[in-house]
Design goal:
Blueprint: E1 2-3, H1 14-28, H2 31-36, H3 50-54, H4 62-65, H5 70-82, E2 87-91, H6 98-106, H7 110-114, E3 121-125, H8 130-141, E4 145-150, H9 157-167, E5 175-179, H10 184-192, E6 196-199, H11 213-221, H12 226-239, H13 248-261, E7 266-271, H14 276-290, E8 298-301, E9 315-322, H15 328-339, E10 344-349, H16 355-373, H17 383-400, E11 410-412, E12 415-419, H18 421-424, H19 431-440, E13 447-453, H20 458-475, E14 478-483, H21 492-497, E15 502-509, H22 524-541, E16 545-551, H23 554-569
Parallel strand pairs: 2-3, 2-4, 4-5, 5-6, 7-8, 7-9, 9-10, 13-14, 13-15, 15-16
Antiparallel strand pairs: 1-10, 11-12, 12-16
Length: 575
C-alpha cells in the first residue's frame, strides 16, 4: 500500500500549515494513545459524556478480536456450501449492506475469486421498490440461496419486510440471522427455526461494522479469505497506534477535517473501477458520522470525472486505487488538481485484501475528523427523524386505507411537482418553472443532491450520472446521488443534520406493478411511497431547498426531467 502523505504534495499551500499544526497538537496531547484507550473526552466539543462516546468504540478491537472467530465463520460457510447453496443474499440496509456489497463486487473477479471458486454468488437487497424486490426474488429462487437477514437492532423496517417477502418462497432453514444479542430478530430466528443466528458485538455502530459479522459472514460465504483480510486490518491498526505525525488514520482525519473547516467540505472520492463500492461504504461512514449540528463533510462519490479546472474551490480529493488498475488519466488529473491548489491524497492498494486496512484507516480518520469538527462521530440523531415520519405515514395508511396525499404545486401530463413555495421563492406555474427555480437557488459552496426513489437499474443510474455531470458543469458545484430508501441509512443524516448547503431534487415514480408484503397491511409500493414522503417532509421541516418530481412513467419522465435541467442551465438538449 502506498499513499501520498497528507503533509507532502497532497496538502498544498494554505492547508499544509493547519494540518501540521493539528497533528503536532494531537501528538502533544497523546491523541493516538487516548483513542486506543477509548477516551471519550477526545470529543469534548460534542458536549457528550465521555463514557457515552466510549461505549461505541468497540470497532478498534475488531482486527484482533475477529481473528478468534475466523474458524467459526469459515466452518459456517463451508457447511452452507456443502449443503448445496450456490447463492447468498443479504437482506439489510446501511451498515448491514454496504460492506457486503463491497465484498460481492471487489472480490468477485481476478485473483481473489480464483482463490475461492467454491464461494457462493453474493447479492444484496437494500431497496423497497417493488420492481427491485421482485427482480431480486426471481434471482434468489432460480438457485438454492442462503438468506442473511441482517439488522443490528432487529427492528429495522426494510430487512423485516424483505424477510417477509423471501420467507414466502423459501423455508426457514434457508435463513440466517445476523444481529446484536437479545434483539427481536433473535427471537424470530429461534421461533421460526432459522438455520442459525450469528451475534455481533453490541459496542460497534452499524457504519463501523464492516469487520464484524455483518461484513465477515457474507464475505466468508462469497469465499473471501477472512484471515488475510484481518491481517491487513491488524497491520493498519498497528500503524494507527503511532504518534499522530506518523499515523495514517490521524493524518487522513486531520486532512479532511481541516479542509472542511477551511471551506473545502466536499470530500471527493475517486476510485478505480473495481473499488467503486468502497466509495459507497465510505460515503455512509463519513456522512452519517460528521453530518450533524449544522456541520459536516459532504462525501462526493461516483461523480463522473471532469477536467481539473471544472472543480470549485470547496473540494478536497482522495484517490483510492488498485495498483492493477493504474490509470494514467487519473495520475494526470491528480497532478492537475494539485497544481490548481486543491488538496489531493492518493492511496494505492497493491492487493484487494488491503481493503481490510482501509476500513480501519477511514474509521480512525472519520473519528479524528469528528475531533476537528467538535461533533460526536458515533451517533446519528436525525436518522430516526425520517424513520418516525415514515412510521406516522404508515400508521395513517393503516387507519385511513391510504397515505396522505399532499396537493402538487403544479401537475402536467406524466409529471407533477411538489414542494414548499416559500423555500422555492414562489409558486411555479409549470413543472419546468419549478425545476428552474430550484436550480436557480444553488450558489457557491452548495451541492445538488439527486434523491431517486426508483429501481437502482444500470440504465437509470447512468441517466442520473449524466444529470450530475450537467449540473456540476453548468452550476460549478458538487453533486451527489442517492437511491431511496438506501441513502436514508447513509447520507440521510447529513441532509437533515449537516450544513444547509444542499439543494435537493427528489424523483419518484409509480412502480410498474406493486408487490404485497406477506403478513403486512402495506405493500412494497406503499412502503417506498411513505419513505419518500417522510423524507420530503423531514427536509421541508428543516427548511431545506427541495423539490419533488413524481413521474407517471420512468423512461419518458426522465427524458422530460433531463430536458428541464438543460433548459434551466441554458444548454442545448438532445432529448
Amino acid at each position: 500500500m502506498t499513499s501520498a502523505g497528507a503533509g507532502e504534495a497532497a496538502t498544498v499551500g494554505w492547508l499544509t500549515e493547519s494540518v501540521d499544526r493539528r497533528l503536532a497538537a494531537w501528538e502533544a496531547d497523546g491523541v493516538a494513545d487516548r483513542l486506543w484507550r477509548r477516551d471519550g473526552s477526545l470529543w469534548a466539543g460534542s458536549g457528550k459524556a465521555p463514557e457515552e462516546l466510549a461505549r461505541w468504540m468497540g470497532w478498534l478491537d475488531l482486527p484482533s478480536s475477529m481473528q478468534a472467530r475466523v474458524a467459526e465463520l469459515q466452518h459456517l460457510a463451508e457447511g452452507i456450501w456443502r449443503d448445496g447453496y450456490h447463492r447468498a443474499a443479504v437482506l439489510g440496509m446501511g451498515g448491514s449492506s454496504l460492506a457486503p456489497e463491497l465484498f460481492s463486487r471487489v472480490f468477485a473477479e481476478g485473483e481473489a475469486a480464483a482463490a475461492a471458486p467454491e464461494g457462493a454468488e453474493l447479492r444484496i437487497l437494500d431497496s423497497t421498490h417493488p420492481d427491485q424486490v421482485r427482480g431480486f426474488r426471481e434471482w434468489a429462487t432460480a438457485a438454492r440461496t442462503l438468506f442473511c437477514v441482517s439488522s443490528k437492532s432487529g427492528t429495522t423496517t426494510e430487512p423485516n419486510a424483505f424477510h417477509a417477502a423471501m420467507a414466502n418462497v423459501a423455508p426457514a432453514l434457508d435463513f440466517l440471522a445476523i444481529t446484536d444479542p437479545g434483539t427481536s430478530l433473535v427471537e424470530t430466528a429461534r421461533s421460526q427455526e432459522f438455520r442459525g443466528i450469528v451475534e455481533a458485538p453490541p459496542d460497534v455502530g452499524g457504519r463501523y461494522s464492516a469487520l464484524t459479522v455483518f461484513g465477515l459472514v457474507p464475505a466468508a460465504l462469497a469465499g473471501v479469505d477472512l484471515g488475510r483480510l484481518l491481517e491487513s486490518a491488524s497491520a493498519m491498526a498497528d500503524a494507527c497506534r503511532r504518534e499522530a505525525t506518523a499515523n495514517p488514520g490521524l493524518r487522513l482525519g486531520a486532512l479532511i477535517g481541516e479542509a472542511a473547516q477551511a471551506g473545502r467540505d466536499k470530500l471527493t472520492i475517486l476510485t478505480s473501477p473495481r473499488l467503486a463500492p468502497f466509495g459507497d461504504w465510505a460515503e455512509q461512514l463519513i456522512a452519517e458520522s460528521t453530518g450533524k449540528a449544522g456541520v459536516g463533510i459532504i462525501p462526493v462519490v461516483g461523480e463522473p470525472r471532469a477536467e481539473a479546472d471544472q472543480y470549485a474551490a470547496d473540494r478536497c480529493f482522495v484517490f483510492v486505487q488498485l495498483a492493477a488498475e493504474a490509470d494514467p488519466a487519473d495520475e494526470r488529473l491528480a497532478e492537475d488538481l494539485q497544481r490548481q491548489g486543491h488538496p489531493v491524497e492518493v492511496i494505492v492498494l497493491e492487493d484487494p485484501y488491503e481493503m481490510g486496512g482501509e476500513f480501519l484507516r477511514w474509521e480512525v480518520a472519520t473519528a479524528a475528523a469528528g475531533i476537528v469538527l467538535g461533533i460526536d462521530p458515533f451517533d446519528q440523531p436525525n436518522v430516526q427523524e425520517s424513520k418516525d415520519a415514515t412510521k406516522e405515514l404508515l400508521a395513517a395508511f393503516t387507519r385511513d386505507g391510504a397515505l396522505p396525499s399532499p396537493a402538487p404545486l403544479v401537475a402536467e401530463e406524466g409529471i407533477a411537482a411538489y414542494g414548499d413555495p416559500e423555500a422555492l421563492g414562489d409558486t411555479p406555474v409549470t413543472v419546468e418553472g419549478g425545476v428552474r427555480q430550484l436550480i436557480g437557488l444553488a450558489g457557491d459552496g452548495d451541492y445538488v443532491a439527486l434523491l431517486a426513489y426508483l429501481p437502482r437499474d444500470p440504465d437509470i443510474e447512468l441517466r442520473f450520472h449524466r444529470f450530475r455531470s450537467e449540473l456540476r458543469d453548468g452550476l460549478g458545484i458538487a453533486t451527489t446521488l442517492g437511491f431511496g430508501p438506501r441513502f436514508l441509512h447513509s447520507t440521510g443524516q447529513l441532509h437533515k443534520g449537516g450544513p444547509p448547503s444542499g439543494v435537493f431534487l427528489q424523483i419518484t415514480a409509480d412502480p410498474r406493478k406493486d408487490l404485497p408484503i406477506p403478513g403486512w397491511d402495506e405493500t412494497f409500493g406503499t412502503l417506498i411511497a411513505a419513505q419518500a414522503l417522510g423524507d420530503l417532509q423531514s427536509l421541508q421541516r428543516r427548511h431545506r431547498r427541495v423539490l419533488r418530481l413524481h413521474l407517471t412513467d420512468v423512461g419518458t419522465g426522465l427524458d422530460t426531467v433531463e430536458r428541464m435541467i438543460h433548459d434551466a442551465l441554458g444548454v442545448p438538449s438532445a432529448i
